[in-house]
Amino acid sequence: EVKQIFDFYCAQCHGFEGKGNGPNVTEDFATNPRNFTNAEEMSKLSDADIRNVILDGGPSMSKSELMPPWSQTLTEEQVAMLVVYLREFCACTGP
Question: Could you give the CA distance from residue 84 to residue 81 in angstroms, rounded to a whole number?
Fold first, then answer.
């Protein structure tokens, strides 16, 4: 189930392999979506940071407004599953 959620809501920008190169990301895309496979960058984020940006959108973490808030769309349980799933891309933990 979590892969389907990721593929539907996240992969358009973050890519199906989590590398930040989804089909919506063109040369003139206004930001570089986070590459979830970058363990050095991902290990700087706590699970709460990831959860908050999924729920509240990019601006909540001083990131791009192109990252929408999903709190009205995804359940807490789905977001918790996504956090675990994103950690699989980087094979890392946060602070």
Answer: 5
